[in-house]
Amino acid sequence: MSEKIIFAYQHSKDSQPVPILKRECPNYRVYRLTPDRLVPDGKVVEEILMTIAAVMDNPLKLQDRCIVYNPFQPVFYEILYSKGKIYFNYVLPEMYQDVIVNKIKTIYKASSLVEIQDYYNCFNNKYYCSFIQKNHYLFSLNVDYRENGIIEGFLSMLNNLQANDQVLFQIGIIPLNDNWKIQWKRAYEKYKDGESLNIHSSIPVMVMDKVFGFTEGLLSVMDMILGEKHEQHKKEENIRDISNFESGRYSRMTRQKVNYSGYQVQMKLFSSNNDTCYYYSKIMDGIFKVLDAEQEITINK
Fold first, then answer.
1. Three-class SS of residue 90?
2. Is 248 helix (H, G, I), strand (E, B) or coil?
3. What is the pTM of this model?
4. Closest by CA position to 131, among listed 280, 268, 238, 276
5. What does the alpha-carbon distance between residue 159 and residue 165 come to, in Å, rounded to a whole number?
6. How does 237-266 read in b/e, with b if 16+ C-beta sit within 10 Å?
7. Residue 19 CB coordination number (10 Å)
8. What pLDDT, on a 0 to 100 scale, did the predictor assign at position 211?
9. What is the C-alpha separation between 52 and 232, in angstroms, rounded?
10. How far apart are the first and last CA of the chain?
11. C-alpha span between 208 and 206 (Å, rounded)
């Protein structure tokens, strides 16, 4: 665990400065899950996500006359394709591993969960493609896991794997506090009033990476980061759009998403072969089409 002073606050000229320490535990452990059945129930994934949210603590604490900032470390779920095989792995920060590992073992009683060596060096300094939401975060993907074939899609990648290539699909997860629901409700009301909400498309991937590492500061500038634009239109020009939003096939999913826990998610695809990275990313982009609803996932060009 490392500590460094990032700021010092002094209430008055004669008062003692109060240092703000940033404390990090950057060590990760990698666990490989071999499930007892081919396609896991979507409820299983939901339970694991709820456990990840439960281990998040308040990032700011007062200790020994210091304010300690302890940022939540991302949890990674990774799918590794290698030599005609597919592996499902959890990459867990050491400080949270015991709770999450116990939860996974409880859910997958007949499955194998073993710690393995980290394999990320195979993809270090390689090109990667990232995936982002196409529309404003107000809208929802098709989250009805009973009808989509996302797991089957992930398995189908094996049929397209070229000889000697290794491919890593990585999902980084950080739980959000409930402030995101306030932002969502504000965006929902603006959209109902006929305003257009768009995501700015020119944010570099590197900027998003830095934001991903500083989640607690994200929500207060959510609109700025997502490039939300408020373009007022006459309400009569948007009646059809609002009607579709309220009565469309997936509108209930969009309206209901605010009732669940929120997560900041970052998805990347790496290839051990730089020349085939975009090729595999296009295949993954096609797999995500089964999730299309009022929201879509697309390659961040």
1. strand
2. coil
3. 0.78
4. 268
5. 12
6. ebeeeeeebeeeebbebbeebbeebbbbbb
7. 14
8. 45
9. 39
10. 36
11. 5
- What is the spatial distance between Cα 153 and Cα 160, in angstroms, rounded to a whole number? 11
84: left (phi over 0), alpha (psi -120 to 50) or beta: left
Instruction: Identify residue 238 by its one-letter amino acid code.
Output: N
Q: Please give the Cα distance from 172 to 130 (Å, whole number).
A: 11
pLDDT digits (tens, 9 = 90+) for 12-70: 666 667 677 776 667 899 999 997 765 556 677 888 888 988 887 766 777 777 777 77
Beta-bridge partners for 31:
90, 115
> What gap in Å lies between CA 169 and CA 86, rounded to an integer?
11
One-letter amino acid for residue 205 of the chain: V
**Residue 87 CB coordination number (10 Å):** 15
Alpha-carbon separation of residue 96 from 103, 227, 280, 287 (angstroms): 11, 33, 32, 31
- Rounded Cα–Cα distance for residues 262 and 82 (Å): 32
Tens digit of pLDDT for each residue in 217-250?
433 333 333 444 444 443 333 433 444 555 567 7
3-state DSSP assignment of residue 213: coil
> Which residue has tokens 């290839």?
271
Three-state DSSP at 111 gives: coil
Gap between the Cα atoms of 155 and 111, Å rounded: 18
109-132 in b/e burial notation, b at 16+ Cβ within 10 A?
eeeeeeeeeebeeebeeeebbbbb
175 has which bridge partners? 263
Q: Residue 32 corresponds to which tokens in the numbers above?
A: 């490989």
Give me 56's structure tokens.
């998040």
Cross-strand partners of 103: none
Q: Which two tokens stand for residue 71?
A: 């940022």
Q: What is the pLDDT of residue 276?
A: 95
Using CA of residue 141, residue 143, residue 144, residue 150, what is the dihedral sign?
Answer: positive
How is residue 142 written in tokens? Answer: 């098709």
